[in-house]
Design goal:
Oligomer: single chain
Strand order of the largest sheet: 14-13-12-11-19-20-21
Strand content: over 45%
Number of strands: 21
Radius of gyration: 17 Å
Shape: globular
Order of helices and strands: EEEEEEEEHEEEEEEEEEEEEE
Helix content: under 10%
Length: 244
């Protein structure tokens, strides 16, 4: 279902997806990416495609490829690149790109970016993801003894990476606008979420507001995505929009 700028709704059936959908994201030129969270090797030893690209005009599949294994978080940017934050089974499961923890992919599924030692710790699990203009944010937590959750901002044009400790451990939703951000964390099996607002003061994201919010249904895990200051969360059959 596509909601137009004038508020009208257009339905486009997508058939023969061939993956168990975990993530959906828009791509340029009226295309839709549907990705499954897991993949495995086929009989030849190649990793099976877990991402498929469909035309929103015809509903036909245009491409299929693999974007790594174990995908807690995925987002696409304005240019059509795909950004993923992987979980422990992907990081330690033998997939060559997933082992980096955070990965950037071209719209055709080719790995084009990796952190290359520029992160403050070793990733263990992705949490959520967001975009702000031409910038990409991947949120993850580490697997070392000291631990910690981090907000990593990537500039796709240059590959530059900047990371900060997160003001909320293990959030499942994040959106940012300038020096202000909103983070959310679902309450397991409850129709409530914790909403934390933060401001970047100097080199630190500092909490400015924290409260519980009742939502129409249980927040669906891994369905939070931030776009240009707006956080979209799926709660039951409803999409919630929370502004940063």
């Amino acid at each position: 279902m596509l909601r137009q700028a004038d508020g009208s709704v257009r339905r486009r059936p997508i058939r023969d997806v061939q993956v168990r959908p975990s993530h959906i994201a828009l791509l340029p030129d009226s295309r839709l990416l549907i990705a499954g969270g897991r993949t495995r090797k086929d009989d030849t030893g190649a990793w099976r495609p877990n991402a498929r690209v469909f035309s929103l005009e015809s509903g036909a599949q245009e491409n299929a490829f693999c974007v790594g294994d174990d995908l807690p978080a995925l987002v696409t940017d304005r240019s059509g690149s795909i950004w993923t934050a992987h979980g422990d089974e992907g990081i330690y499961g033998g997939h060559p790109e997933s082992g980096a923890g955070l990965v950037g992919w071209s719209g055709a599924g080719e790995a084009i970016w990796a952190p290359e030692g520029r992160l403050p710790d070793v990733p263990l699990e992705g949490c959520t993801a967001a975009t702000e203009g031409d910038l990409v944010w991947l949120i993850w937590y580490s697997g070392t003894r000291r631990g910690g959750t981090f907000l990593t901002r990537i500039t796709p044009a240059t590959g530059e990476v900047t990371s900060w400790p997160s003001p909320l451990p293990k959030p499942d939703g994040f959106a940012v606008r300038g020096d202000r951000a909103v983070l959310t964390r679902r309450d397991h099996n409850q129709r409530t979420i914790e909403v934390v607002r933060a401001e970047l003061l100097g080199d630190t994201w500092t909490v400015t507001e924290r409260h519980k919010v009742h939502v129409p249904g249980r927040v669906v895990k891994r369905c939070g995505q931030g776009r240009d200051g707006s956080l979209w969360l799926r709660a039951g059959d409803t999409w919630l929009r929370i502004e940063a």
